[in-house]
Amino acid sequence: MRVVIQRVSEASVTVNKNVVGQIDEGLLVFLGVEEADTQEDIDWLVNKTLNLRIFNDTDGVMNSSLVDTNGQMLVISQFTLMASTKKGNRPSYVKAAKHTHAIPMYEAFCQKVEEALGKKIQRGVFGADMKVALVNDGPVTIQIDSKNRT
Question: I want to staple 28 with a disulfide (CB 3.0 to 4.6 A). Which of 11, 48, 111, 133 is the partner?
Answer without folding.
Answer: 11
